[in-house]
Write a structure and sequence with these properties.
The structure holds 2 protein chains of 2 kinds. By secondary structure, chain A is mainly α. Chain A has helices at 2-5, 7-11, 13-38, 42-50, 53-63, 67-91, 96-118, 121-129, 137-156, 158-166, 168-173, 178-216, 223-248, 252-270. Chain A is globular and about 60 Å long. Chain B is an alpha/beta fold. The chains are: A mainly alpha, B alpha/beta. The interface between A and B is medium-sized, with 23 and 26 residues.
Chain lengths: 281, 261
């Protein structure tokens, strides 16, 4: 038991660092995910997470596999796609989800081609699926910094953000500047996406946000407890995912997401609120 | 409620030739009416007749195509608005207390703590709508009637001079409806102006002194008895028939029109 679960972390510093990165990620991403679910923006988050790829690719082209450079590039392309997509949906006949999908497909294809112009396939794999075992001190600081900022900002704008999610019409009727808080929140989503991308890759980054958040929905009924459960689920999946990845040689990002996927599936059946077994919401 | 049109009443909302377009069709056509301080007015008419649009125009949530609305109380905090219940997610993870407390957002801003005095205000509102005992229950567990009571408590805390309610009795039981109507009547005795959109002819006839029959333009406005005449209802039906035939079936007022007019 001890040898299986604990010892690898004692022996290898890179595993310890990966675990710390996972814990920091969990604390930032999971609460953001909870609010994304409550805003019914899960799919939008998905689209956004893929749209960071071209920026990441540009960062890679200029600086190599440097996580901060790729992170900053990713942040910009994510923001650009978010702004373009909402511009198109406001000015044309397309709804927001459709215009997001259009842009993220373009972004994904463009990003993959950009990486392949210079890189080897192994680098593309790193970028798509992450490399949490290669997290260094600089990236660890970046992840922790983003988590700190996003927890702080979310605490600060908690009330208007929740009100904007719950009853946007009321928010408008009291002149509450809902779109400002929405924009700040979207900024936080992109920031956390960037920090998750380092660990899990652009394809899996959203997993750290959404799976714990939708799992929590079956366990908790207040926002604070949703946050707490989601964070716990994320940390546990990070830990177990790393353990499995170490023992069985699985790629670490997918191992973490798959673990949290299994937790989710178990919860869908057995969770205490609104699950298949227990319909009472 | 006689003397409705007398000159000594203060007009708090004055529509001057107001037209509003919504999704490329005319929702309100050249409306010129006044709402007076302390009045209680029901707005009724067929679906697509511009009832909700009228409220949104008062709030400034939809742009006016033509004309203007003069407001005696120009501040945003002077108007409270309760939208149709269908537009809110009732499984959202908040407690009764949380939602009611949000009614103070305007007065207190988003960032102040809830101190003892504020808490007392919230408790009083909860008591008035009869929800004091379940203040800390989650929204999931409430009936449609209880949910509407919460929203009434929230509206109460906004402490506004003008209160706009859109179909507030659509999803509530009879008992709750009577309680809520008492609250509305309380508001008018406090001198607040209340405008209620309602489909339900029976409720309007029994409880609301004034009515506005709206079918894109004003069919009739004044004392309820004089507004809800067979002739007026027929006219509303005729003008609505021009553009909304398909909606007749799920429209309670129009059902009435079909059977009886």
């Amino acid at each position: 038991m001890y040898e299986f679960f604990i010892e690898p972390f004692g022996t290898y510093p890179f595993l310890r660092r990966a675990l710390i990165a996972c814990i920091a990620l969990s604390m930032g991403c999971a609460p953001v995910g909870v609010l994304l679910v409550l805003r019914r923006m899960s799919l939008m988050g998905d689209a956004l997470s893929h749209s960071v790829l071209p920026g990441v690719a540009l960062g890679y082209l200029f600086m190599g596999l440097s996580l901060p450079a790729m992170g900053i590039g990713g942040m910009f392309s994510g923001l650009i796609v978010a702004l373009l997509a909402s511009f198109i949906s406001r000015k044309t006949v397309l709804k927001e989800d459709a215009s997001f999908v259009g842009f993220y497909l373009i972004a994904l294809a463009l990003g993959a081609i950009l990486v392949s112009t210079k890189g080897k396939n192994i680098d593309l794999m790193h970028i798509l699926f992450g490399s949490i075992l290669a997290v260094d001190k600089a990236s660890l600081l970046l992840i922790a910094g983003i988590t700190t900022i996003s927890l702080f900002v979310m605490a600060l704008i908690f009330r208007p953000l929740v009100l904007e999610c719950f009853d946007p019409i009321f928010m408008r009727s009291i002149g509450g500047r809902g779109s400002l808080y929405h924009l700040i929140f979207m900024g936080l989503v992109v920031l956390n996406m960037v920090s998750a991308f380092q660990a899990l890759g652009t394809l899996m980054a959203l997993g750290m946000m959404m799976l714990p958040a939708i799992t929590a929905r079956f366990w908790a009924r207040e926002i604070w407890s949703l946050y707490l459960v989601a964070i716990l689920v994320a940390i546990v999946s990070g830990f177990l995912g790393l353990v499995f990845s170490y023992h069985y040689g699985w790629p670490s990002g997918p191992a973490i997401i798959l673990t949290s996927g299994v937790l989710y599936l178990v919860t869908v059946v057995f969770g205490p609120y609104g699950s298949l077994r227990c319909r009472r919401t | 409620m006689v003397g409705f049109m007398t000159k000594d009443l203060k007009s708090v909302l004055s529509f001057k030739n107001v037209s509003v377009s919504y999704k490329n069709h005319l929702a309100l056509d050249n409306i010129s009416i006044d709402f007076f301080e302390g009045s209680l007015t029901a707005v009724l008419g067929p679906n697509g007749g511009g009832k909700s649009t009228l409220l949104k125009a008062i709030l400034g949530l939809v742009p006016l195509q033509k004309g203007e609305i003069q407001r005696f109380y120009p501040k945003l905090t002077d108007i409270a608005y309760l939208a149709q219940q269908t537009e809110v997610d009732r499984t959202f993870p908040l407690t009764v207390y949380d939602v009611v407390a949000l009614g103070l957002s305007q007065a207190k801003g988003f960032f102040q703590e809830i101190d003892q005095k504020t808490d007392a205000t919230i408790q009083k509102a909860l008591e008035k709508v009869g929800l004091k005992d379940i203040a800390h229950r989650s929204l999931h567990m409430l009936s449609g009637g209880q949910f509407q009571r919460i929203l009434f408590a929230r509206t109460m805390l906004q402490d506004a001079k003008i209160i706009l309610l859109d179909e507030p009795f659509a999803a509530v039981d009879r008992y709750t409806m009577e309680d809520l109507i008492k609250i509305v009547q309380g508001w008018t005795t406090e001198g607040r102006t209340v405008i209620i959109v309602s489909h339900d002819l029976e409720i309007v006839q029994s409880y609301f002194p004034q009515s506005l029959l709206l079918a894109r333009s004003v069919i009739a406005y004044g004392a309820t008895k004089q507004v809800l005449t067979l002739e007026n209802l027929r006219q509303a039906k005729r003008s609505s028939g021009e553009w909304e035939v398909s909606n007749l079936e799920n429209d309670k007022t129009m059902q009435f029109f079909k059977d009886d007019v």
